[in-house]
Amino acid sequence: MSRTLLIVKPDATKRNLIGHIVSRLEKARFKIVEMKMLKLKKSQAREFYAVHQGKHFLDSLVKFMCSGTIVPMALEKENAVKDLRALIGATDPSKADCGTIRFEIARDIEKNSVHASDSDANAKSEISFFFDN
Ligand code: CDP
Ligand code: MG
Q1: What is the number of the ligand 1 atom nearest to the C-alpha of 64?
Q2: Which residue from 7, 31, 89, 90 has the fewest beta carbons nearer than 10 Å?
Q3: Which of 20, 52, 56, 115 is catalytic?
Q4: What is the Cα–Cα distance from 66 to 45, expressed in whole angstroms?
Q5: In which domain, by residue range, is 12 found?
Q6: Local structure of 39: helix, strand or coil
Q7: Alpha helix ranges (H) inside the chain
Q8: At 77, is the secondary structure helix, strand, or coil?
Q9: What pLDDT is stored for residue 33 in this prediction?
Q10: What is the DSSP code (8-state) at residue 108?
Q11: Mean of pLDDT values over 4-16
Q12: Looking at residue 91, which CATH number applies to its domain?
């Protein structure tokens, strides 16, 4: 078993899609082991997205991620990181495969409804960013 972090982003919480996303995750055999709702401060969003320092989209991304409620959750499954990336689809929803969460509900390349960790090492640090143990 391994763990990964998913965040329901503000565009999705605003459209009342938390339950829809949770249902997609559970149907795909992910076990939700931690979950909470919160609003990020700008300094926290900048820290979370530190890997994107210097990228042209960072300021707008930080503003977006602080624009509403988010729902981070730690998920458990075999091959959790890889399987969750496959389930959410490409960053740009116009390039996401049919059937993926982003294909189905994302608005655009920024407001793409969900975050998912991209490696086991990042999953570990991203989970500890939001949760104690
Ligand atoms: O989320 P993912 O790992 O698929 O993409 P990323 O390259 O790690 O980028 C993080 C987030 O920045 C994306 O999910 C988008 O919300 C945003 N982004 C953007 O607004 N414009 C881009 N050209 C690339 C990413
Ligand atoms: Mg990423």
Answers
A1: 16
A2: 31
A3: 115
A4: 7
A5: 2-130
A6: coil
A7: 10-14, 18-27, 42-48, 58-65, 80-88, 101-105, 120-130
A8: strand
A9: 98
A10: S
A11: 99
A12: 3.30.70.141
Q: Give the model confidence (pLDDT) of 16-54 as tens digits.
A: 999 999 999 999 999 999 999 999 999 999 999 999 999
Pocket lining: 115 vs ligand 1, CB cutoff 6 Å: yes
The CA distances from residue 29 to 1, 25, 73, 78, 114, in Å, are 12, 7, 15, 9, 17
Count of structural domains within the chain: 1
Ligand 1 within 6 A of CB of 120 = no
The CA 43 to ligand 1 mean position distance, Å, reads 18
State whether the beta carbon of 110 lies less than 6 angstroms from ligand 1: yes
Structure tokens at 105: 């509900």
Q: Is the pLDDT of residue 133 over 80?
A: no
| pLDDT confidence of residue 81 | 99
pLDDT digits (tens, 9 = 90+) for 92-109: 999 999 999 999 999 999
